[in-house]
Protein: Type 1 fimbrial protein
Organism: Pseudomonas donghuensis
Amino acid sequence: MNGKYVAIAAGLLFGLNGACVAATPVAQGVINFTGSIVESPCTPSTQAGAFNLNDCPAQVRGTRIGLQRVDSQASVSAPDQTPVNVRLVADSGKAGRYYHQQYALVDAAGKAVSSGAYLITLTTP
């Protein structure tokens, strides 16, 4: 009879050993993300009467550009308050992950603007 009890005890030991070492279940639930995934923005640079947008992600192609003249509070305004526009001068094309664009500030006659202070606002999709 002793051999019978030893065999039963050994069977229970080995049988329950697997249940005791079993991995704990993974906790379940819901993860909420708030915000947005963003890619690095364009690298802007300026020169006389023009500005460049370099290394822009392809997803932001179609950027709207706003232009507003910034005048000093103490200055006298010039009599010719002609509107200034932004004109695309060069574009690297749509092939590839990144693109480069160059814009020029021009007056109503299409001539390059070489003086003044302007606030340029870029709005990307």
